[in-house]
């Protein structure tokens, strides 16, 4: 496996310089693709800034070396195994982003922009994953930006005297950086699509529902996202237990006296004791970022933002190929339905009166190794990076390249401003949805209604015993 910092074996590398409002940034070019990695968009959240709202990074006084991935918020991964390769990179400057762009002399400029938010249950994940490499987007005339944000206690713990939803505030500031700087990289600040998967997809829906998201992006894509708010009482109970485990008061000062690594390790252990529920910390409702629940916010905000969202057919209900998978699919209250798929018609119903449109998809291709259309396996298809490290272990030796081309081209078209070629959804049973890779069909399949009816409030499920996260 090649280094994450090597975009292509045997491809000559050359330095490339961009002069942006943030300062001079020096990256690398391989072929027709330019990469600028680990650019800080905020001051490092350490010391007095650790549990504070993010502060914009000052202008670089010297050229910034953007040849390597920046530090990651994930220090101590809480999950034993992950489908996606998710490297942890040490360092304090965790609020950074990477830009992968077409060559500067590409006559298609200015390019639309895709801002990608990684998943990981708001506890883990890494923007440095090779599955998020934007080379195929650059090939297709899109600037791809991957963003890091604070996780776990540092990003989402409700602590007295600490602004809520710090992780979402980090993302909002990153979008501000994109608006102010992306033109220097060839991007169009007036055509920004925010996208993410799992917790990242949930963050997209949260930002779309937030009054603070207005004007910061123009299109939205949520892969396997959902309404992932965590009740403040439940989050405070978890933080109280965590403080007891660490022998510190559950306060800013208490947690601030410990390293991020120590806190993340304790979160992992406590989460396991409580039954592996991944949503122990996450966005909370009641501040200026999320004044109302996400579903309610979607009915009010983001009406001018087209939304594409969907889920995989099995998410966490896959397993061994064959009987177990068939039984999971037959279970009407399976986790896939209640936590992931039900969010799709609910979002469409909340946005029924929007002028922009909501389109649904369903990823149905079953990995021969994971026993179903499992959580995360759709990402290499959407990014069209079937040759990336770790894909063979998740997808097998011969994943269908024509499916990747179809899915990626649909996403590229959406980012470029085109409406999907199937009907928008309204949140009613039988809404059309593009099916990708359903067994026995062509790669693009059809657009029959595949989503379940809206699940009543309170019927959502946790993820019992889910060993793999992404």
Keyword list:
about 475 residues, Rossmann fold, two-stranded parallel sheet, 14 helices, disordered N terminus
Could you walk me through the main structural features you see in this protein, from its secondary elements to its overall organization?
Strands 1, 2, 3, 4, 6, 7, 8, 9, 10, 11, 12 and 13 form a twelve-stranded mixed β-sheet that branches. A two-stranded parallel ribbon has the order 5-14. With 470 residues, it is of the alpha/beta class. It contains 14 helices and 14 strands. The N terminus and C terminus are likely disordered. The protein is globular and about 55 Å long.
Can you give me a brief rundown of this structure?
The chain is an alpha/beta fold and 470 residues long.
């Amino acid at each position: 496996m090649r280094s994450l910092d090597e975009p292509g074996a045997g491809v000559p590398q050359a330095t490339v310089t961009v002069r942006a409002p943030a300062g001079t940034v020096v990256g690398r070019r391989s072929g027709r693709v330019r990469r600028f990695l680990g650019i800080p968009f905020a001051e490092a959240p350490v010391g007095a800034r650790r549990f504070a709202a993010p502060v914009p990074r000052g202008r670089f006084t010297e050229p910034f070396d953007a040849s390597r991935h920046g530090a990651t918020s994930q220090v101590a991964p809480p999950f034993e195994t992950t489908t996606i390769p998710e490297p942890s990179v040490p360092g304090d400057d965790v609020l950074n982003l990477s830009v992968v762009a077409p060559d500067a002399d590409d006559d298609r400029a200015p390019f639309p922009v895709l801002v990608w938010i990684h998943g990981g249950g708001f506890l883990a994940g890494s923007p440095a994953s090779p599955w998020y490499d934007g080379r195929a987007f650059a090939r297709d005339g899109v600037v791809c930006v991957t963003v890091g944000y604070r996780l776990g206690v540092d990003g989402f713990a409700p602590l007295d005297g600490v602004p809520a939803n710090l992780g979402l505030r980090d993302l909002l500031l990153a979008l501000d950086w994109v608006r102010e700087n992306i033109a220097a990289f060839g991007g169009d600040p007036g055509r920004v699509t925010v996208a993410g998967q799992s917790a990242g997809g949930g963050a997209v829906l949260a930002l779309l529902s937030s009054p603070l998201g207005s004007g910061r992006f123009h299109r939205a894509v949520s892969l396997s996202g959902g309404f992932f708010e965590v009740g403040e009482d439940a989050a405070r109970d978890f933080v109280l237990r965590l403080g007891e485990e660490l022998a510190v008061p559950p306060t800013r000062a208490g947690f601030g006296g410990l390293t991020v690594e120590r806190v993340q390790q304790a979160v992992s252990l406590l989460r396991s004791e409580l039954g592996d529920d991944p949503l122990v910390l996450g966005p909370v409702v009641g501040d200026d970022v999320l004044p109302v629940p996400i579903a309610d916010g979607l009915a009010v905000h983001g009406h001018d933002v087209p939304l594409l969202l969907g889920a995989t057919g099995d998410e966490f209900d896959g397993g061994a190929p064959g009987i177990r998978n068939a039984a999971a699919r037959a279970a009407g209250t399976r986790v896939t339905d209640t936590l992931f798929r039900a969010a799709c018609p609910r979002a469409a119903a909340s946005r029924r009166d929007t002028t922009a449109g909501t389109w649904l998809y369903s990823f149905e291709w079953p990995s021969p190794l994971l026993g179903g259309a499992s959580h995360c396996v759709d990402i290499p298809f959407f990014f069209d990076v079937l040759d990336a490290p770790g894909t063979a272990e998740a997808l097998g030796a011969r994943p269908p390249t024509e499916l990747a081309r179809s899915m990626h081209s649909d996403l590229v078209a959406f980012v470029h401003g085109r409406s999907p070629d199937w009907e928008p959804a309204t949140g009613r049973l039988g809404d059309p949805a593009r099916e990708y890779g359903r067994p026995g069909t062509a790669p693009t399949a059809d657009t029959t209604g595949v989503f379940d009816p809206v699940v009543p409030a309170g019927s959502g499920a946790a993820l019992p015993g889910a060993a793999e996260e992404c």
